[in-house]
Amino acid sequence: MRTIYTMLRVPNLLIIALTFLLLRYFVFIPVYSAFSITPGMGSLQYLLMITATILIAAAGYISNDYFDVITDEVNKPDKKYIGLQITAGTALSISIFFSFFAIVLSIWLSILAESWLPAILLLTALAVAWWYAISLKKTLLWGNIAVAGMSAGTIAMAWIIENQCSHVSDVPFRIITNIITAISIFAFLLSMMREIVKDIEDMEGDSLINCRSLPIVKGIPFTKTILLVFTVITILFLIISQIYLVQIPRLIAAAWLLICVEIPLIYFIKSLASATIRADYHKLSTLLKWIMIGGIGSIIAGQF
């Protein structure tokens, strides 16, 4: 059981599913109801989209571990399962099976939606996940951008496919697009920051495979400066969002962002300045993950 939990990153998969469900029931459907629009995407179609996305993420996690066996011996010895609990061949086979199943579901979704757009978006995400695992993660920043792009792109994809099925009119389209854009930008910035922090945390192992991560190429002080810049940009973006929320007014949502996102980000800046050892950066990575969850919670808070 622990091997499955480690292999699939079950909490991450649950967060993906939760995000999709929150978007549907706290963004799409409320706006549809306000404009008397009938959702064009049924429960089965939405479930297919969620399942295909989860399978793509799971395949990406396993394939990433498969190609990271050497580095994980140094970076994550307590979470290493390939070669201990299961063989490398078995892990690769599971990843390929998940990928194949995701392809099948993506095509099924496209048939039901009478459009190839869902399959194109989902299979592009699958291709990027494998590309990242095989080589992209070793490049300077491009691997980080790929992961952050997939985090933001998953949110955007949900709306693109939903709109493809529902054909929403101009006003509700703009409302939902603005919400999705804001959430996607937040997801990109936080994911980018977390990936860079993890690069610092994993420097020792990454150096064994000639990885050109930012801290290896430019050093930790420069990388900390980049992280600070990203954090400040994120806080400024949040302030702009809060000003808008206060004007609507959505005071609870504005307060939620302050308490669950902004204040933790300020604490992140303080902790980043004093971080020196690997354990410090692991704590920062975990903090950013909780901040991301706090950001997802703003989807619910946005109703008030």
Task: Describe what you observe in this structure.
- By secondary structure, this protein is mainly alpha-helical.
- Helix content is 82%, strand content 0%.
- It contains 13 helices and no strands.
Helix content: over 70%
Report how far apart the termini are.
40 Å
Strand content: under 5%
Counting helices, strands and paired strands, the structural category is mainly alpha
Low-confidence stretches: none
Task: Note the run of SSEs as H and E.
Answer: HHHHHHHHHHHHH
Q: Number of helix segments?
A: 13
Based on CA atoms alone, the radius of gyration comes out at 20 Å
Keyphrases for this structure?
304 residues, mainly alpha, 82% helix, 0% strand, globular
At a glance:
Helix content is 82%, strand content 0%.
List the topology elements.
Blueprint: H1 2-8, H2 10-34, H3 43-66, H4 69-75, H5 88-113, H6 117-134, H7 142-166, H8 170-201, H9 203-206, H10 214-218, H11 220-247, H12 251-274, H13 278-301
Helix pairs in contact: 1-2, 2-3, 2-7, 2-8, 2-13, 3-5, 3-6, 5-6, 6-7, 7-8, 8-11, 8-13, 11-12, 12-13
